[in-house]
Amino acid sequence: MQASHLSDASTADTVREPVARDWLWKPWYAKLWWAAIPVYWAGAAASLKLPALAEFYTSALAGYLNMLFFPLTTLLVLGFGFIRAWLNRPLSGEPLSDEEIDELEQMRMEDEHWERLGRPHWSVDIYDPRSGGLYIGNPLSPQHPGRRD
Question: Which chain regions cross the lipid bilayer (predicted)?
């Protein structure tokens, strides 16, 4: 029993948190992509002075390349692997016991009960913006003070 407990603790220590640089910079394709971005945009800036480059940078292909070499696109695509690994990482700490889960559920139900006590449901409350057309602040509402029929 203790041996298995020790092996679990040692595996928990060896599993490391995902690091963004492992996805955003370490792969060869990430380095190539990040290095190509300033080259592409330097060419775009040079196209303002060189007519030969201006013809390319006004083409439809350049429109697609603008999206490909936009830094936020690179961050989004390369960061997807990091986000997936971060969400799948093993969590640290002890899980909640059944009693704690039941207690939290009971607290949530009591909060909902007190919230609704003495007030109409939000869908029919003219003072709640979530009620849509019934909301008194909605100019299309029949209760709106400025409405003229």
Answer: 32-52, 64-87
Expressed as residue numbers, the domain containing 67 is 2-87
pLDDT of residue 138: 72
Coil vs helix vs strand at 102: helix
3-state class (DSSP) for residue 81: helix
Distance CA 113, CA 105 (A): 12
DSSP state of 125: -
- The Cα 97–Cα 122 span in angstroms is 34
Based on the number of CB atoms within 10 Å of its own CB, is 39 exposed (0-12), middle (13-18) or buried (19 or more)? exposed
pLDDT digits (tens, 9 = 90+) for 23-46: 999 999 999 999 999 999 999 999
Number of domains in the chain: 2
| Angstrom distance (rounded) from CA 63 to CA 55 | 12
Alpha-carbon distance of 75 to 20, in angstroms, equals 10
